[in-house]
Amino acid sequence: MSTQELNNRALNSQVQGKWETRWHPLLEQWVIISANTSVRPWSGKISKAPGSAESAHDANCYLCPRVTRASGSVNPDYTSPHAIDNDFPSLALTAPEPEVASNELFKRSAAQGRCRVLCWSERHNVTLAELSETEMRGVVDLWCDEHRMLAADSVIKQVLIFENKGAEVGASNMHPHGQVYAYPFVTDIASRMRASQTSYAKRNKGADLLSDLLNDPQGSALLVERSEHCSVIVPFAARFSYETWVVPHRQAPYITDFSSAELNDLSRMYQRQAQRYDALFQRKSPNITLLHNAPCDENTDNKHWHFHIVMQPPLRDLEKVKFLAGAEAGSNNIVNPLQPEDAARQLRECEIA
Ligand SMILES: [Zn+2]
Q1: Are 224 and 97 in contact (CB under 8 A)?
Q2: Are strands 230-233 and 223-226 parallel, antiparallel or unpaired?
Q3: Domains of the chain: residue spans and CATH
């Protein structure tokens, strides 16, 4: 049976699954697992694979080597992963100090921080999943360098490294790249995750939430792949149909805490999961990747944080895009139309190199 037939079989074998609410222990919120809604008639947006491949260099792309950007800067002739400042930043160290608020209802502060763009490759027409193992490891080194550099600035309280990949998640430039937002505050998601991991450790004699999650036999059906230093799992309370987490086995708050051997493993496992999505969706799959490092403020609770990578493809099956609509926008409680154990099985069955 061909790889495509195998992957088709995986996608078509969705069965009527569980209908229940599941507790998301990191975000401390309920997720509705409603596997019965995936068989509802669909008249929403259909997402098709993009057309023919573009060339390796695009003179109109502001991320390609040697191109002059909107700021007037000329990109160097780079040949490995490369970082630049975002020419249209939401946060900047030069942002002005606003007027002092007269009361708490009009509280404000300067939008100080940094926004960076990380090019995974000098080649315009590849994705991270298609890089060589060495090139991918270079991307991981860039993640570490950026985090180290930005977290050292006392203005910065959290560094979020992420990738918006594909038109479905609003990526405006197809050059393989990610971004960094270095915030002057701790974001809402990080506040919740820090509180939940700290509270779990205090309730359980210092135990680590994500390590316990990985090691609990009840989660065995959620495992996609396990290697020496990290595992890829579908979370028990997945908020997106094919959401996965790449979790190092050793608890540490920051990507910069890991050894070279651990980072080699993380790099390989992350890239293999990106390849698995391409195999499952039979295209250069759209995806949001989030590197969840602990905040870099002075809070001593950061020590309980377990660094991990979250991948959230927006597709609920081969062609359908999942939108967050009224109930979800109004509640922040997501409905997932696919049983997480079923998603993990489909991902395990994907054939990759
Ligand atoms: Zn480009």
Answers
A1: no
A2: antiparallel
A3: 3-40+72-349 (3.30.428.10)
- The CA distance from 203 to 172, in Å, is 45
| 210-242 pLDDT per residue, tens | 999 999 999 999 999 999 999 999 999 999 999
CA dihedral 214, 219, 225, 230 (to 10 degrees): 0
| 95 CA → ligand 1 middle, Å | 29
- pLDDT digit string (tens) for 125-138? 999 999 999 999 99
Q: Which residues pair with 291 in a beta bridge?
A: 161, 309
* Residue 238 and residue 343 in contact, taking contact as beta carbons nearer than 8 Å: yes
Residue-wise pLDDT tens digits, 307-321: 999 999 998 887 788
**Rounded-to-integer distance, Cα 92 and Cα 18, Å:** 46
Q: For the chain, how many helices (H) and strands (E)?
A: 7, 12
Helix axis angle, 3-12 to 260-281, nearest 10°: 80
Q: Which residues are catalytic?
A: 177
Half-sphere exposure for 124 (CA within 13 Å, toward CB):
17
Half-sphere exposure of 152 (CA within 13 A, CB side): 7
State how far the Cα of 309 lies from the Cα of 286, in Å rounded to an integer: 16
Cα gap 217→204, rounded to integer Å: 18
Query: Please, what is the average pLDDT of the chain?
Result: 91
| 87 C-alpha to ligand 1 centroid (Å) | 15
Residues with CB under 5 A from ligand 1 (ion): 58, 61, 63-64, 124, 175
The residue among 115, 138, 119 whose CA lies nearest residue 127 is 119
Determine what percent of the chain is predicted with pLDDT higher than 90.
Answer: 79
What is the CA angle 241-245-246, rounded to 5?
145
